[in-house]
Amino acid sequence: MTPEHKILLRTARNSINCIVINLAKDKARYAILADRLEQLEVDFSRLDAVDGRGLTDDERANFKSQRPRNRNGWWSDGQIGCFLSHSRAWEIAARSPHNFTCIMEDDVHLSDAVTEFLSDDGWIPPGIDLVRLEASNVRVRLDRAPLAAHAGRQVHKIRSTTWGTAAYIISRQAARKALDMPPESHNAVDYFMFSFEEAALSRAISAAQVTPAVCVQDQFQPASRAMGFATSIEPTDTSFIAKLQSLSRPRDALRAASLIARGSRHIRFKA
């Protein structure tokens, strides 16, 4: 039986399935997160991540030939590995008996409130396909009025592009939609999921944000709390300035700057 089938068939106490994406070599960081999830009494399963640096030349060329990334004409090994890793998780979510699956990467810090958000799915507003759980150091525009309140947090509909796939909850239907998207629409995984302007998947699903966030990547923690775990599947600098500098057209930079003027905000983590 494959690891994926073990994840699919396991009996879970939580009504939201939880998957942790982890590279086989990163045993220490997985052990820390596993201990934390067990402390919070959250059932979870490990999913072996794809290391893009370990692909053969033929595998890499085949992947790229199907996914031209017309605006961003190259795929880094890290971006390939990250996309394939999350695709594996979507396959499990799409076949799962659970209506929702939480997918998290192994370098996240968790609030105690995570238990409340993964113990049942009754708090997820009707019509919402995807819920971001993580903090964001780039600004995102949310509806002013929350869709729901739960465990001392609010759930707001997302109204602008954002970045990051370190921790999110995806519905079975949204996972199927992600898998059904044609390869030529594929892009870096957070762009593929959360680019309002150009990603077909983002326009096909409804996404929301938990605020304050219940998860945060290690690289965004203060030095006194960080464990020094750089993102290993897809090393990247996701600061707001770096994102602006990476945009390939002037209108994109203007659009990003206008988010600030329209009241968009950072999503803070609350332990």
The sequence of SSEs as H and E is HEHEHHEEHEEEEEHHHEEHHE
The 3D shape can be described as globular
CATH topology: Spore Coat Polysaccharide Biosynthesis Protein SpsA, Chain A
Count of helical segments? 10
Keywords, please?
12 strands, Spore Coat Polysaccharide Biosynthesis Protein SpsA, Chain A, two-stranded antiparallel sheet, 271 residues, 19% strand, disordered N terminus
Topology:
Elements: H1 3-9, E1 16-22, H2 27-39, E2 45-48, H3 57-66, H4 77-95, E3 100-105, E4 108-110, H5 114-118, E5 130-132, E6 136-140, E7 148-150, E8 153-157, E9 167-171, H6 172-180, H7 189-194, H8 200-204, E10 207-211, E11 215-217, H9 240-246, H10 250-261, E12 265-267
Parallel strand pairs: 1-2, 1-3, 5-10
Antiparallel strand pairs: 3-9, 4-11, 5-9, 6-12, 7-8, 8-10
Helix pairs in contact: 1-4, 4-6
In short:
With 271 residues, the protein is an alpha/beta fold. It has 10 helices and 12 strands. The strands form 3 sheets. The protein has an 8-stranded mixed sheet. Strands 4-11 form a two-stranded antiparallel ribbon. A two-stranded antiparallel ribbon has the order 6-12.
Provide a descriptive summary of the structure in words.
With about 270 residues, the chain is α/β, with parallel strands linked by helices. It has one domain (about 5-265): Spore Coat Polysaccharide Biosynthesis Protein SpsA, Chain A. Helix content is about 35%, strand content about 20%. The chain is built from 10 helices and 12 strands. The strands form 3 sheets. The chain has an 8-stranded mixed sheet with strand order 2-1-3-9-5-10-8-7. Strands 4-11 form a two-stranded antiparallel sheet. β1, α2 (about 25-40) and β2 (about 45-50) form a beta-alpha-beta unit. The protein is globular, with a radius of gyration of 18 Å. The N and C termini lie far apart (about 40 Å).
